[in-house]
Specification:
Two copies of one chain form a homodimer. The first copy, chain A, is α/β, with parallel strands linked by helices. Chain A contains 13 helices and seven strands. Chain A has a seven-stranded mixed beta sheet, sandwiched between helices. In chain A, helix 9 links the parallel strand 2 and strand 3. The radius of gyration of chain A is 22 Å and the shape is globular. Chains A, B: Keywords: Hydrolase, Signal. Chains A, B: It holds the Pfam family HAD.
Chain lengths: ~325, ~325
């Protein structure tokens, strides 16, 4: 009898602490508005046994764009900044680049010309400057750069220029049994060396653009050699394709921030049952940046959020998360 | 005091049951020979804190071939049998197939001619017969077939023709913090609908060959359409490439059974620290099949294990797991 009482008491302590944890706000850096409420409601309805929208854990797939969704993408995609450094380092071996775009623009520091080339030109630069080495050597180069290079405005490591509300959301989703994936136009091998540490997302759960790799024996050691040839562009209609290839399941939640994410959100929210599409809207020039051109914000070739995306969001019930109004805090280094 | 005593007693019960579990043989269907000992030793040395070969959980990646490694591949690859059924069903719409290989061979039931075409011809058939539908429709077709079709010799569902010793090994590895992946020459979308149920391996952890898919809006619904065009052959030197793409980490354990797995084993065992390469050797005609041609066994175009693979195994210290001698039990339906 004593034993039963004691067990009961242990159980109460356990349950009490359990419910205390549950009662804590899982998204403290989100303001209490419609976006936060929509997220909480969606997670509640898909993870509560007996709910008509209940989704079994194995189907709780959430995909996140990276640039502009999880970390800063202005004034330039971080990987592009990395690529610029690589081009400058490799330029002496490529005198022809002085006359050849987009290399000329990089060497001349003409960012406007460079950005005008669009994402495909960027992908080409990345393929060119990221190839001719093993995957393992590329990982070392990336790691060296990402642990030292700093953002020009915030003067912090790029991996510290990540959005705290999104880190909270990733953690919250995983605690609720979701598998979280990155689905980015960025290079898959550029992200993998640090996504576990920064986002808690392991390399196999990173989907991105890639160049062709080839299995080779180099000095008697088996390696993957990176060739200067584009393999896959994980952007726009490529995002659902990348999701099909790497995940093989239709996400029930997708979070993006630009026209490059439209098809991913269409695909995720186009299935049966409860679905949630979200878009970060960068409308906070004080704490971060403001660009659209939706809502009359300045146009941007990087992470463009045009009016038709805003219209599509309204039509499909996607949640537009305004940085200025929905996020209490943006960076960990903010006051 | 009572409380402390009671807590101590609870703890003893917990520890006792814990150690009972630990003491149980994790691989009861493996005979106690060098292969089983090598596996147990490898897992012990890589997962024990303080061991010089300790590997942190995030780097415990194990890759398994599927056909002939996890399930039966004779007398034909299971997916090929599935493809034959599809070709026969689609043949009335393709009169030209009566004169065109490899379709003619299928329609005529000439398996020898078909097998002579090799894996690339098979991949072509698969691409042709598996395309022109959405990924979701293909999943339904696959699921219908795999839950009803039976193996011609064992008269059991193909998903029951899986090797019990390997199921034990997959479970054991996962209990020890490994992530288990399939890396197969088979079609990625053919495997994903059932690998979670049969092997405990979720769709994102399946790597395989694929055809091109395209994002489309079909009747207003966003779908992935399967096109009749080969995307990737995940075989031989393609296996390390597929691992690089999907996993982004070098495995520390790889298990195959044929010359198609050689490069995967080279890649996995070519890294630093403790590594384990394993090959199933089908030398048990009574309980399963016997084919080589290594060791003088009959040659086979399906899952060929040539003498040079045996030599390479010896040279690299890969463990050759003889079905006849190393496996106490093969199928769950065995006595």
């Amino acid at each position: 009898m004593n034993t039963i009482l004691y067990t009961g008491s242990l159980l109460s302590i356990f349950l009490a602490s359990h419910f205390t944890i549950q009662a804590q706000d899982p998204l403290p850096s989100w303001n209490d508005g419609p976006a936060k409420q929509a997220i909480l409601k969606f997670v509640e309805t898909t993870t509560t046994q007996g709910s008509p929208d209940f989704v079994p854990p194995e189907d709780r797939i959430a995909t996140f764009d990276n640039d502009g969704t999880l970390w800063v993408e202005q004034p330039l995609y971080t990987q592009l900044t990395f690529a610029l450094d690589r081009v400058k380092a490799l330029a002496p071996e490529h005198p022809e680049w002085k006359e050849e775009q987009p290399y000329k623009a990089i060497i001349d520091g003409d960012l406007k010309e460079l950005i005008a080339g669009g994402k495909h030109a960027l992908a080409a630069i990345i393929a060119t400057t990221h190839a001719g080495m093993t995957s393992s050597d590329f990982e070392k180069i990336t790691t060296d750069w990402i642990t030292t290079a700093k953002h020009p405005r915030f003067h912090q490591l790029y991996t510290d220029c990540v959005y705290v509300p999104q880190l909270e959301l990733l953690t919250y989703l995983r605690e609720k049994g979701f598998k979280t994936f990155i689905v980015s136009g960025g290079g898959i091998e550029f992200m993998r060396p640090w996504t576990q540490r920064v986002y808690g997302i392991a390399p196999p759960q990173v989907v991105g653009s890639s160049i062709v790799t080839e299995f080779q024996m180099k000095d008697g050691m088996p390696v993957l050699m990176r060739l200067p040839k584009l393999n896959f562009v994980d952007d726009k209609a490529g995002k659902p394709v990348g999701i099909g290839q790497h995940i093989g399941q239709r996400p029930i939640l997708a979070f993006g921030n630009s026209s490059g994410d439209k098809e991913m959100l269409q695909y995720a929210t186009g299935g049966d049952g409860a679905r949630l599409g979200l878009l970060v809207y960068h409308n906070d020039p004080e704490r971060e940046y403001a660009y659209g051109p939706a809502g009359g914000l300045p146009d941007s070739k990087i992470g463009t959020f045009p009016q038709d995306l805003m219209d599509e969001a309204k039509q499909n019930g996607w949640i537009v998360v305004g940085m200025k109004n929905d996020w209490k805090r943006i960076f960990s280094f903010d006051e």
